[in-house]
Amino acid sequence: MAATTLQTKLAEAREADRAALVGYLPAGFPDVESSIRVIQAMVEGGCDVIEVGLPYSDPMMDGPTIQRAADQALASGTTTDDVFRVVEATAATGAAALVMSYWNPIERFGVERFATELAKAGGAGVITPDLIPEEADEWFAASDQAGLDRIFLVAPSSTDRRLELTTRASSGFVYAASLMGVTGTRTQVADTAATLVRRTREVTAESGLPICVGLGISTASQAAEVAAYADGVIVGAGFCQRILDAPDLETGLIAVRSFAEELAGGVRSR
Amino acid sequence: MSHAQPVPDDRGHYGRFGGRFAPEALIAALDEVEAEWAKAKDDPAFHAEFDELLKSYAGRPSLLTEARNFSQHAGGARILLKREDLNHTGSHKINNVLGQALLTKRMGKTRVIAETGAGQHGVATATACALMGLDCRIYMGEEDTKRQALNVARMELLGAEVVPVTIGSRTLKDAINETFRDWVANVDHTHYLFGTAAGPHPFPKLVRDLHFTVGAEAREQVLELTGKLPDAVAACVGGGSNAIAIFAAFIPDESVALYGFEAGGEGADTGRTAASITAGSHGVFHGARTFVLQDEYGQTLPSHSISAGLDYPAVGPEHAHLADTGRASYEAVTDAEAMEAFRLLCRTEGIIPAIESAHALAGALKLGLRLGPDAVILVNLSGRGDKDVNTAAAYFGLVDSEGQA
Questions:
Q1: Residue-level pLDDT at B279
Q2: How close B295 comes to chain A (CA, Å)?
Q3: Which among B169, B203, B237 is the end of a domain?
Q4: Fewest beta carbons within 10 Å, which of A107, B23, B258, B311?
């Protein structure tokens, strides 16, 4: 199977001896057209990969910042079809476009249909925070057929057996949750992050599956710290917060671009 | 204890429903609960302690009361009430919280968190935590904390911390989301004492097992009283814990029809409803595949019921399976029908039921007319109505909107 744009982006970063910068934004936040402009600013600032969030009414794994962003996206009428539009615009920037979604909206849309539409829009894969490999038979088949990467999560509480199972089920990268908790900024990188990445490396030595770290990373120095041992650094709430704080979109775009630039500097100073 | 029940598969699937749609970070904790329950289930010491608590603290076995006057309004069918309303804390919820609190201690955890809608499960959880010396935090939608201020005070009197949830729709489902968020951050020393037979595996099975005694007692009591099994068993269904509690022991008895009565709200076809089997569709919600009230994109729709305890947009996966296989039937009862049955039980039997349980009573009235005067109908009177006096008084115009008589 040909490499996905995600695999290419991560390989390029690895060749340049740096970590990739992965940015998250819910599609439709603050509205569909504006979310496309925010993502463009994230890519201009240096994001290699964009996770386009599918806003969901019950985001069990998200803290207040991303909850607010997703709520706003839903209030502005964002649908699954809009998510594909945002993915298409994201892919057009040259960045790798992923979708991050709770499982129910995908199942409701139709798993196979979702995979087909996403591939057609230029999406490279899907991150599924509440889907574990044991429940993912239909997703395995659909993602294989559409040529999409499957990104599952590992956590500090994952047993060795589950690290093995989950990394074997993943492609593109495996998402290492840096800490036990929900999304949102933290004052420092949890010490569980480095341990989890080291444990995960032990089971990915053969496959070379990249490991990207997310949850709680929101400054250039935190990005640099994580870039020292991870293949990618994932930042979400920090971008959403800048849009929430800005008095208008233009101000927000400037803040997002310069935040991405800072983080891009971070992932290059490992 | 469970030899005669249809057990879910080892990953918690009930046919095509159930399972575990949960973040990886919680899988180890769910595995721990599952393993601890498997051990406790076979441990005579656990059962000795649990049974003693049920007997000398909760007040089990609960009575079976024949509702002779009420039956006159049900075509003469014999209606037998399983009196879970007489348990300590006023509902069936006490069985589950005592069992899970014991389990919490066995796991070496010191803190318990739980969600609550009307406050029944929150009060029960706070009670068990007070008894067993566990720290307790209850998440409750902000709207519900206002409507149920008395229950908030009760929980606080029992030493629990009550946290109003101010995000999303500010109701039960958001309280559950918030409790999961707390759990993932504090799982090393905290147990999520889930209140209904829903959620990710093993909760639906654990909660069902801890409530099994309800149906088992009732089965013996009905046999003793009537010399035969009942023709039908009726229970209200929100998440579905009291219904699975009384159904479970009867599932192998093919002659016994099982009826779950969902909260129809203003009508199952009005969009102002909480009847997830009747008006919902297949989906994944709060950790399990089940029936969900959702829009075409899989976004959860707000539920509506006059009963806060049934005001939930999904249902436990075993009920989804029982509906799917036809072993149980699920019908919607409207707010108005439930309140009429509520008033009827008050006036004819001198028992004020929980509005939740009034849905089962309304269903039993319909069943009686359908099944005829020879029928014996067992109804789970899952809770008492003290908590609902304000709602009912306002509904029947006994007080003004300020609550003044």
A1: 98
A2: 9
A3: B203
A4: A107
